[in-house]
Amino acid sequence: MVHIRPAAEADAPVILGFIRALADYEKLAHACVATTETLVETLFGPRPYAEVLIAEWNGAPAGFALYFHNYSTFLGRPGLYLEDLFVTPELRGKGIGKALFQRLAAMAVERGCGRLEWSVLDWNEPAIEFYRACGAVPLDDWTMFRLTGEALASFGLGK
Prior knowledge:
By secondary structure, the protein is α+β, with helices and mostly antiparallel strands. Helices cover 35% and strands 25% of the residues.
């Protein structure tokens, strides 16, 4: 049976394990530099930047969803952005991912959010099929951009 609960600071090592497993799945392990310490600071410190739901299967951690608020100027309302949703491979197909996603959607409604958004890698067909089955629609007319590392620092300094 699946149980969904908010993460606590003591879950930081479990969350990091899920993040590393997700990075492996997405073939991005080389880009994963998060540590337990950075997760404690940024998720449970004085100013949390994101929230996490933990899914448990028969009392053991089985997956997680990490999310944060964004804002729609057109709607004039907050939204929720799902950064990551991951279920351990051996427990997939048991409804754990769906339970996490449904809980997140319910939270968005409870919090008065106008939308729930996320990104999915274009090769991740199982996730794309799952999201479509939930009623989600792709935003094919938008292109995501990212500024990181040296480019971010340099631009931020006006160089």
